[in-house]
């Protein structure tokens, strides 16, 4: 999503994106921007796994009564629309 936002804002250079799942670290997400002279890092850490359970319950409630194949993105877009 950050890559898409940068492209939509007019950033024209190549944007490299990668994802790594590291061992048993369940709730640490790091986004970094690296340049020759500096690095910027944004870190999100979950202290309690209940946040994941809350999302799963919200998804289950959203699925109730629906038929077919859905992604989490389908649910989030539907919730955003109201």
Low-confidence stretches: none
In which order are the strands of the major sheet placed? 1-2
SSE ordering: HEEHH
Q: Helix tally?
A: 3
**Which outline best applies?**
extended
Q: Round the mean pLDDT to the nearest integer and report it.
A: 86
Helix content: 25-40%
Give the amount of beta strand, in percent. 15-25%
Q: End-to-end span in angstroms?
A: 21 Å
Quickly count the domains: 1
Number of strands: 2
Backbone structural class: alpha+beta
Which value, in Å, is the CA radius of gyration? 17 Å
Largest sheet: 2 strands, antiparallel
What does this structure look like?
By secondary structure, the protein is an alpha+beta fold. It has one domain (2-81). It has 3 helices and 2 strands; from the N terminus they run αββαα. Strands 1-2 form a two-stranded antiparallel ribbon. A hairpin with a 4-residue loop joins strand 1 (28-34) and strand 2.
Q: What would a concise description of this structure say?
A:
This protein is an alpha+beta fold and 82 residues long. The protein has helices at 2-8, 50-63, 72-81, and strands at residues 28-34, 39-45.
Give the SSE map.
Blueprint (H helix, E strand, L loop, with lengths): L1 H7 L19 E7 L4 E7 L4 H14 L8 H10 L1
Antiparallel strand pairs: 1-2
Task: Give short descriptive properties of this protein.
38% helix; 2 strands; extended; 82 residues; single chain; alpha+beta
